[in-house]
């Protein structure tokens, strides 16, 4: 798959630096427009998904998303494993900096086994669909005790062609400071890697923990699809 070749060619030290400095990094054009369209087209296939969530029913925002069931489609399973490998080093380094356990195993298969042993057996990769005036409230994707501290979103639609508005937003809450917001620029096929719920920031007295949330601003027109890849499973 071309996406895996693209991952191998990346400068991961530079990506790690972006993650350390700002809590996110962007892989440009990880997926081709054709593959993006193919993945968005999966949304209507009921057999591929284990559940559907209508955001307004739960106060999550407006729009909906569907979680895939196991076995995952090949391309999503491959992306999940391939992205985990270069990110686990960052994850473990962050854990050490924040004085946290656990440390994560080198392979995603081993990490998934630990999730399942803890009762987190439901797959979490998902496709999100937004229409006009839909949005996603700021949130954190925590599904159990085992949480991998990084996740990935891949935009499947083209901004200003398929939709307008719908910016991906991160907020950062540092101790005793007001929240800071960041709009992450994504184009079709771009992958945003970002902190799930907290990350270390170095201060004058060592590292401290910063709380992160993410969401999507209001869609002004059209329809927006995105693929979410989480590495931990859910209870």
The CATH architecture can be named as Sandwich
Number of domains: 1
Mean pLDDT rating: 94
Shape: globular
Radius of gyration: 17 Å
Question: Order of strands in the sheet with the most strands?
Answer: 1-11-7-15-5-4-2
At CATH level 3, the topology is Jelly Rolls
Q: Mind telling me the CATH superfamily name?
A: q2cbj1_9rhob like domain
Strand content: 25-35%
Query: Uncertain regions: pLDDT < 50 for 5+ in a row?
Result: none
Query: Fraction of residues in helices?
Result: 25-40%
Q: Would you report the number of β strands?
A: 15
The arrangement of helices and strands along the chain is HHEHEHEEHHEEEEEEEEEEE
Largest sheet: 7 strands, antiparallel
* Total helical segments: 6
End-to-end CA span: 31 Å
Describe the protein.
The chain has 235 residues and is α+β, with helices and mostly antiparallel strands. It has one domain (2-229): Jelly Rolls (Sandwich), CATH 2.60.120. It has 6 helices and 15 strands. It has helices at residues 2-8, 12-22, 33-40, 55-58, 74-97, 108-117; strands spanning 24-27, 49-54, 61-62, 64-68, 126-130, 135-139, 150-155, 163-165, 168-173, 180-184, 191-195, 198-203, 206-216, 219-222, 224-229. A hairpin with a 6-residue loop joins strand 9 and strand 10. The longest helix is centred in the middle third of the chain and has 24 residues, at 74-97. 34% of the residues are buried. The model has no long low-confidence stretch (mean pLDDT 94).
Key terms:
Jelly Rolls, 235 residues, globular, 15 strands, alpha+beta, 7-stranded antiparallel β-sheet
């Amino acid at each position: 798959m071309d996406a895996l070749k693209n991952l191998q060619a990346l400068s991961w030290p530079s990506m790690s630096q972006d993650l350390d400095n700002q809590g996110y990094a962007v892989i440009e054009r990880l997926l081709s427009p054709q593959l993006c369209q193919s993945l968005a087209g999966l949304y209507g296939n009921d057999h591929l998904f284990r559940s559907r969530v209508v955001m307004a029913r739960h106060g999550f925002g407006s729009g909906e998303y569907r979680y895939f069931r196991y076995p995952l489609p090949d391309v999503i399973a491959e992306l999940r494993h391939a992205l985990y490998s270069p990110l686990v080093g960052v994850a473990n380094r962050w854990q050490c900096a924040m004085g946290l356990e656990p440390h994560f195993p080198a392979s995603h298969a081993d990490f998934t086994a630990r999730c399942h042993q803890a009762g987190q057996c439901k797959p979490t990769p998902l496709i999100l669909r937004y229409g006009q005036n839909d949005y996603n409230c700021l949130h954190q994707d925590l599904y159990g005790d085992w949480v991998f501290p990084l996740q990935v979103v891949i935009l499947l639609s083209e901004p200003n062609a398929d939709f307008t508005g719908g910016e991906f937003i991160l907020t950062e809450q540092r101790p005793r400071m007001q929240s800071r917001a960041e709009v992450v620029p994504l184009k079709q096929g771009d992958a945003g890697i970002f902190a799930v719920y907290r990350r270390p920031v170095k201060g004058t007295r060592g590292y401290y923990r910063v709380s992160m949330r993410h969401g999507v601003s209001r869609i002004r027109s059209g329809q927006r699809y995105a693929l979410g890849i989480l590495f931990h499973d859910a209870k």
